[in-house]
Structure prediction request, 86 residues.
Amino acid sequence: MDLSLDLLGNAILSGLLLGGFYAAVTIGISISFGMLDIVNIAHPAFILLGSYTAYIANSVFGLDPILASIVLLPAFYLLGMAIYAI
Prediction:
């Protein structure tokens, strides 16, 4: 099997991006559970909701997922405040 440099670069970049996503999720959960002593069972649901929203923004509007997450951050902040108040 022939290993091309493009395929190797794509695999490395995909691994780094996926690892960065896992690191961001882990930091959020460890701060929520460890330092604040708040058990938030909705945290994984918000992570999936944000991921699907970034995916939809990418597929419909062609927006980069990182840029979509930055643009959608205030809306999710307000959603989190509303859920916390309820």
